[in-house]
Amino acid sequence: MSSPRLLVGLTVVAACISPISAAAGVRSTTLKVRSSLDGKAVLPHRIHWLGYPVPGSTKVHMEFLIDGALAWHEGSAPYSFADDGGYLVTTWLSPGKHTFTVRATAREDGAVAQHTVTARVLPPTTPPTALAGTWKRTPDLTGHPEFPAGAYELVFEKRWIQDRFPGKFDASTTHANGPGTGSGLIQDSDWDPGPTRFHVQGAVVFRPFDPNLPEGGSWCENYGPGADYTWSVTGDTLALAPVGGKDPCGPRGFIWTGEWTRVG
Fold this sequence. Notes:
This protein is mostly beta strands. The chain is 7% helix and 38% strand. It folds into 2 domains: 4-13 and 126-262, Lipocalin (Beta Barrel), CATH 2.40.128; 20-121, Immunoglobulins (Immunoglobulin-like, Sandwich), CATH 2.60.40.
């Protein structure tokens, strides 16, 4: 079973490649770029977002910008937002129109091409009142030294399910290259709320991963794997359990499964 610390370390290696500056390139009439969002006027809750250089054989550095701000970059095909198989999750964006730009910089000659889609984002689903808010749990970590010890917090809100790991964030150790401590880590998971159960998928990505910041990364992979959970609240106690008895993302299932106490 992979640990979150190891996975965070692997993510850093892939994500810390510095993007090529488009300003240094030359605008090209030959190189073009298309987007998998082409033709979409309204975006769903989650969608795969890929950039396609034209000609397709051109090796590029692909940047993904939302409202002009860099949200992700990818150095090899397939040029996918949030890593291979990852999703653009729109819940963190304000409802209404936004711009989604793919910008390709050719590795051979620095030629630059970009393409923008303007699409509307819908309001995220409001979680049930009984589930919304902050919950705390101190799991028994016997036999699991890969997790930081202490109280974990789980926050259910419209944008995401947010995990707050125990301990103090330290840029030199929390996201250290393989593996980090995980202390003070904050992770945002994509979800679909429901009255007695919910679906959780992967990470909500809104900027390139930065090891100098506590918020970022994913439990297993940015795309998931997904799982369904049942939930019930009695007084100030929340009970969580994966449907079928097992979460295919083992570390997430280990921390989430059990009883949580409301703290906010």
